[in-house]
């Protein structure tokens, strides 16, 4: 629970920090690279984490890194480049190149950051002695604190200023449900296919489709209410962002061999883009939905 919350906060914070006029690289590149680097550290520390406190490994990899990185956001970012949703003065070839850049740069950065995290952790690990496992009382305390941390997201949504809702507090509400859905899908479906991790594929595809749908709702000509708009933003940033993951995706690509890795990557990418073509493309080109967000976050 807290790992999902802090993962979302880290993603939103990094995106806000790296979004500015004249930026040299698209903001999600920082998000995916950072999450994959930490995932590499987690993978290298799997055995020590397991000996110390097993849930810590799941919290770091599935919880924090899975919530920090986002497959659905990556797919929507690429599709927005294809359709030039920012209305930049450029031709169709430039739109294609922008989408292609976001595709391969994300893949290269994610895989390289994952390997770099594994390497750095391998170099540093011998200099840090393994701590003693926590006592039973300490584990119970951690569990209670985790539950209370997620419970605090509800009053945070209602009692913090309204303009915080679309920025963070709405996303925090839906962070853990998204992570839990991904975790359950991976447990139930990943063992069923040897050629690809079916659970992660389903989570990434479902999250991408939902994020595209929420973007369509935010682009309706008759703008929805500010509270509804904030909840839609929270569902996109929180639920879809945590339901989908690049860090686990990159780790699974690295674990697969030969054409299995290539086919898993290709099928996942094509499926995401086809889903957005059907959901967002048909809405945009049908003339009923604007490519830019029309709902307002302002409250009276």
UniProtKB/TrEMBL annotation:
<feature type="transmembrane region" description="Helical">
    <location>
        <begin position="166"/>
        <end position="185"/>
    </location>
</feature>
<feature type="transmembrane region" description="Helical">
    <location>
        <begin position="104"/>
        <end position="128"/>
    </location>
</feature>
<feature type="transmembrane region" description="Helical">
    <location>
        <begin position="25"/>
        <end position="43"/>
    </location>
</feature>
<keyword id="KW-1003">Cell membrane</keyword>
<comment type="function">
    <text>Fluoride channel required for the rapid expulsion of cytoplasmic fluoride.</text>
</comment>
<keyword id="KW-0472">Membrane</keyword>
<feature type="transmembrane region" description="Helical">
    <location>
        <begin position="140"/>
        <end position="160"/>
    </location>
</feature>
<dbReference type="InterPro" id="IPR003691">
    <property type="entry name" value="FluC"/>
</dbReference>
<dbReference type="GO" id="GO:1903425">
    <property type="term" value="F:fluoride transmembrane transporter activity"/>
</dbReference>
<keyword id="KW-1133">Transmembrane helix</keyword>
<comment type="similarity">
    <text>Belongs to the fluoride channel Fluc/FEX (TC 1.A.43) family.</text>
</comment>
<feature type="transmembrane region" description="Helical">
    <location>
        <begin position="197"/>
        <end position="217"/>
    </location>
</feature>
<protein>
    <submittedName>
        <fullName>Uncharacterized protein</fullName>
    </submittedName>
</protein>
<dbReference type="Pfam" id="PF02537">
    <property type="entry name" value="CRCB"/>
</dbReference>
<keyword id="KW-0812">Transmembrane</keyword>
<feature type="transmembrane region" description="Helical">
    <location>
        <begin position="55"/>
        <end position="74"/>
    </location>
</feature>
<feature type="transmembrane region" description="Helical">
    <location>
        <begin position="266"/>
        <end position="286"/>
    </location>
</feature>
<dbReference type="GO" id="GO:0005886">
    <property type="term" value="C:plasma membrane"/>
</dbReference>
